[in-house]
Write a structure and sequence with these properties.
By secondary structure, the chain is α/β, with parallel strands linked by helices. It has helices at about 15-25, 40-50, 65-70, 80-90, 105-115, 125-140, 150-160, 195, 205-215, 215-230, 265-275, 290, 305-315, 320-335, 345-355, 365-380, and strands spanning about 5-10, 30-35, 55, 75-80, 95-100, 120, 145, 170-175, 235-240, 245-250, 255-260. It is built from 16 helices and eleven strands. Helix 2 (about 40-50) runs parallel beside helix 3. It binds nicotinamide-adenine-dinucleotide and magnesium ion (MG).
Length: about 375
């Protein structure tokens, strides 16, 4: 029997890479659900190719076009948030790969978890904003959360063989450093959108590419690692590694450091999440260290990239603070993508939003959604 998979956010960078992996692993996998935001043409094409049981488009405006473009297929078509939630929970999937960008991934992901489905987690914002809720729900339903984010996939592999938290000295998350690693801070105010969208090592969607330029991506990943691996923040460090060959490391108390290496191709961590604990053949480029020659490492520059400290601060405070951090960041990055604010405004907006925040609720789901809403309004006003 093939393993049934639903892909949320199938038209994005991770979604498309996942479909490539699934295509190669055929007939071991069957796509039963697909979702997109607005890219109706790509979604329709995917429906015709993969013939899923269900598919949903978030924006109702495109629903008639989706119907017209997929005429003759037996796929059940849905729209709106309810549509996404239905694909996550009711498409008959054994595994749901979450590749939606941002907080919009929370409800469908939580639904899939509550129904006991395994999760291949790319949508890190869900884990950042609701890590406690998500991990508790997974424990209750027996759903396994397998990381797709390359760093967390690396840590997950380096942790195999040791499940005792007391044996871990540090989790070392590597970061490319983004396009502005060597740029003097005095030039940061003039950074253009085009420059920020040029990531040195990875090709990704626009939001995570900007997050990589501000280093907020690494900040979000620190929080993601905290919830995925149950490690205190004092045991999670960031190491700048411009070649992006080592995807992360775990240092044990005996001084042994384990690393996972590979080429910069997201198909590798995606495939591992899909086939775990087995490994399958993959046609990705092989790593040739003799071609690479040297690997470099440095400390992150906290002065140049204030988002790192903001993320640690929100993570340490816990509760609804990470949701506030995430929402303020989403608002700021959106405005930067529209060229309405400067690069330096991104950490300023997030910092000011965090300073203004007074948690009125605890970290349950309602509290998180309220904090997310409050932070969006506050960051927008700033
Ligand atoms: P992307 O922008 O390329 O794709 C996002 C997908 O989500 C698209 O299918 C889009 O239609 C859908 N979507 C966007 N907004 C939505 C909304 N409001 N509601 C429902 N669907 C929506 O993004 P991406 O680069 O593929 O990243 C997806 C997620 O994976 C992000 O959380 C990102 O941080 C994470 N991730 C990406 C990479 C990468 O290499 N691209 C690596 C690690 C982690
Ligand atoms: Mg990553």
């Amino acid at each position: 029997m093939p393993k049934k998979i639903a892909i949320l956010g199938s038209t994005g960078s991770i979604g498309i890479s996942t479909l490539k992996v699934v295509q190669k692993l055929k007939p071991a996998f069957q796509v039963v659900g697909l979702t997109a935001y607005r890219n109706v043409k790509e979604l329709a094409q995917q429906i015709k190719t993969y013939r899923p049981k269900m598919a949903a488009i978030l924006d109702w405006k495109f629903f008639p076009e989706l119907k017209a473009l997929t005429k003759g297929t037996s796929t059940q078509l849905l729209a709106g948030e309810e549509g996404l939630v239905a694909v996550a929970g009711d498409s008959g999937a054994d595994m749901v790969l979450t590749a939606i960008v941002g907080a919009a991934g929370l409800k469908p992901t939580l639904t899939a978890i509550q129904k006991g489905k395994d999760i291949a987690l790319a949508n890190k914002e869900t884990m950042v904003m609701a890590g406690d809720v998500v991990t508790k729900a997974a424990k209750k339903s027996g759903s396994r959360i397998l990381p797709v984010d390359s760093e967390h996939c690396a840590v997950f592999q380096c942790l195999a063989g040791s499940t005792k938290p007391s044996e871990i000295h540090k989790i070392l998350l590597t970061a490319s450093g983004g396009p502005f690693r060597n740029l003097n801070k005095k030039h940061f105010s003039k950074i253009t959108l085009k420059q920020a969208l040029k990531h040195p090592t990875w090709r990704m969607g626009p939001k995570i590419t900007i997050d990589s330029a501000t280093l907020m991506n690494k900040g979000l990943e620190v929080i993601e690692a905290h919830y995925l691996f149950g490690a205190p923040y004092s045991k999670i460090d960031i190491v700048i590694h411009p070649e992006s060959i080592i995807h992360s490391m775990v240092e044990y108390i005996d001084g042994s450091v384990l690393a996972q290496l590979g080429t910069t191709d997201m198909q590798i961590p995606i495939q591992y999440a899909l086939t775990y604990p087995a490994r399958g053949n993959s046609p990705v480029n092989r790593l040739d260290l003799t071609q690479i020659g040297q690997l470099h490492f440095e400390k992150p520059d906290h002065g140049k990239f204030p988002c790192v400290d903001l993320a640690y601060e929100a993570g340490e405070k816990g509760g609804t603070y990470p949701a506030v951090l995430n929402a303020a960041n989403e608002v700021a990055v959106n405005r930067f993508l529209k060229e309405e604010i400067s690069f330096n405004d991104i950490p300023k907006i997030i910092g000011k939003t965090l300073r203004k925040y007074r948690p009125l609720t605890n970290g349950n789901l309602d509290g998180i959604l309220w904090a997310d809403h409050w932070a969006r309004e506050t960051a927008s006003a700033i």
